[in-house]
Amino acid sequence: MKSETIAAEVVVIGAGSAGCAVAGRLAERGREVLLLEAGPDYGPFGSVAWPAELLSARMLATTHDWGYAAERWTFERARVIGGCSTHNGAIAAVGHRRDYDGWGLPGWSGVDVAPLFELAIERMRVRAYQAAEAGPFHRRCLVAATDLGWPIASDLCDLDAGPAFGLETVNVVEGVRWNAAFAYLDPVRDRMRICDRTVSDRLEFGPGGPRVVAERNGEQLVVEAETVVIAAGVYGTPGILERSGIGDPAILRSAGIDVRHDLPGVGENLHDHPLVEADRTVGPELQAWLDAAAATGFLPEEQTLGKFVSGVSPDGLYDTHVFPVCASDQTSILHGHIAVVVACLTPRSRGSVHVVGSDHRMPPLIDHRYLSDPEGHDLAVLRDGLKVAQQLLGHEQLATVLGDAVTDLGSDRAIRAAVKHYYHPVGSCAMGSDARSVCDADGRVRGVPGVVVADASLIPQIPRANTNLPAVMIGERIARSLTQS
Ligand SMILES: Cc1cc2nc3c(=O)[nH]c(=O)nc-3n(C[C@H](O)[C@H](O)[C@H](O)COP(=O)(O)OP(=O)(O)OC[C@H]3O[C@@H](n4cnc5c(N)ncnc54)[C@H](O)[C@@H]3O)c2cc1C
Questions:
Q1: In Å, how far are 60, 162, 323, 468 from 56, measured between CA atoms?
Q2: Closest ligand 1 atom to the C-alpha of 92?
Q3: Three-state secondary structure call for residue 125
Q4: Span 27-54, mean pLDDT?
């Protein structure tokens, strides 16, 4: 295989939500940055190369996916500039400040992350949907929630907010999903190098420091750098470390990889918000309204959301998302039915993601072990949340325009059989101070000088929030620590 060697001060692997933030901020602060992304780079906002489905925030885009799956689940992850921020639901949330206090890590308390979130919110152009923008179904949900006596909030994206129902906060600009590449790379594209369609395989270590070994168009690309920032996402980052011989020795040996550094937490602590969908078929009247609204303008599937406190919340804070979803587009998987989704925001179940061989083309083994916590906490939150969902669905505003349930959720067994994920995996290279932690509080991989992680895999315990803004905030935080040290 032909091989080329280049040098950079900082190489960032993965141009996702966090990778764009860290690379963009480092370039802004005068660092010489090379950004390696496995998927295509379609250029700045306004470039005609951008595929329409990656721009439209109306529904999730499915064309640029890594294609991970296990058992009956698919684990969507974008393979494109901007990472998952380029194909996600564009719902913007920060969680509660106590989520971050609970990490117990220097520089990550609620007080510390608040200004970083402000930067992320400004760059990602976050705003709340206005009442006039709400589609016919979500308007009815708002009326029903108000009638049911639930507090109505005008800003759900607030570290101090309590339980409430309201219009969602989003990073959507005139119908466009405002991704992290537009937010962080566009202002500095002339000050950094981006190598797209370049898959980073592993790190090697010589006397001069770490080197990234990557593959591009069937040729090898070796990058020598002072600092390697791995931002390949929660399923990608552990794989790069493991293929480099960094991880649990038993797992590395079973994958045929020589052990370089014993770090047993790599790929462990994987978790997500588990969810179930209380669904109903759409009645003809509602379908006609939806078709009419979709024909005349932008009608996204998600527009309203509730935060609720379940009966097992240990701290009295909200621990459940209850949010209605309603498709307007006939190509959506939801077409013909609606769902009120119930998600557990404080999951205790933990799984893992590991490589099964040394070849980067082999997909990892992803085992989330949803609802496996021995106390049954995660299941109990879903059970409670379903009662709230049924209240909403039973209100005349919805009951009169909906048909029957499609999915049975009437027993614990049925809930287990129907459980899905919220697309929010985190934690597979977690920060911390104990023996199981992979990184320190500045994202530095323990015992591996010059290598830093900057993405959602750093999260030790998932916040009560959709994870895009937290991932962007992590990029801001790691860029700051790299430029202050
Ligand atoms: C379908 C979907 C809907 C979602 N909806 C929402 C939502 O509405 N709101 C919200 O807040 N969150 C949402 N999320 C979650 C959120 O988008 C993610 O948590 C967040 O984007 C993760 O950011 P990250 O930087 O950790 O990883 P990613 O954004 O996944 O970035 C990783 C990047 O690294 C690249 N990469 C991976 N491996 C390699 C390699 N070996 N070499 C080179 N490059 C590599 C990938 O191609 C990717 O670009 C959603 C996620 C999905 C998938």
A1: 9, 31, 21, 17
A2: 11
A3: coil
A4: 97
Residues 234 and 336 in one domain: no
Interval between CA 390 and ligand 1 midpoint (Å): 32
Q: Is the CB of 236 under 6 A from ligand 1?
A: yes
Q: Which two tokens stand for residue 190?
A: 């002339």
**Which structural domain, as residue segments, surrounds residue 353?**
129-172+272-421
Beta strands in 196-252 (DSSP E): 198-206, 209-216, 219-230, 246-247
| Structure confidence at residue 301 (pLDDT) | 87
**Beta-strand runs (E) in 393-450:** 420-421
Ligand 1 proximity of 203 Cβ (cutoff 6 Å): no
Cβ within 8 Å of residue 293, ≥6 positions away: 135, 136, 299, 328
Write out pLDDT tens, residues 130-171: 999 998 899 999 999 999 999 999 999 999 999 999 999 999
The rounded Å distance from CA 270 to ligand 1 centre is 15
| 138 part of a folded domain | yes
**Distances, alpha carbon 193 to alpha carbons 34, 102, 209, in Å:** 5, 37, 21
Q: Which pLDDT value is given to residue 330?
A: 59
Domain assignment of residue 288, yes or no:
yes
Give the Cα separation of 101 and 108 in Å (integer).
7
Residue 199 to residue 197: CA distance in whole angstroms: 7
Q: Which of 423, 453, 472, 473 to mutate to test the pocket of ligand 1 (most atoms within 8 A of CB)?
A: 423
CATH number at residue 240: 3.50.50.60
257 assigned to some structural domain = yes
> Which CATH number does the domain housing residue 357 bear?
3.30.560.10
**How many angstroms does the Cα of residue 180 sit away from the middle of ligand 1?**
10
User: pTM value?
Assistant: 0.97
Tell me: do 219 and 324 sit in the same domain.
no
CA dihedral (24, 29, 33, 38) in degrees, to 10, reads: -10
pLDDT at 394: 96
pLDDT recorded at residue 449? 95
Report how many domains make up the chain.
2
The pLDDT of residue 297: 76
The 3-class secondary structure across 310-329, one letter per residue, is CCCCCCCCCCEEEEEEECCC
| Distance of alpha carbon 354 from alpha carbon 481, whole angstroms | 28
| Dihedral sign of CA atoms 324, 328, 330, 332 in order | negative
Computed over its alpha carbons, how large is the radius of gyration of the chain?
22
Q: Tell me the helix, strand and coil percentages in the chain, rounded to 5.
A: 30, 25, 45
pLDDT tens by residue, 180-213: 999 999 999 999 999 999 999 999 998 888 999 9
58, pLDDT greater than 90: no
CB of 476 within 6 A of ligand 1: the answer is no
Q: pLDDT tens for residues 350-385?
A: 999 999 999 999 999 999 999 999 999 999 999 999
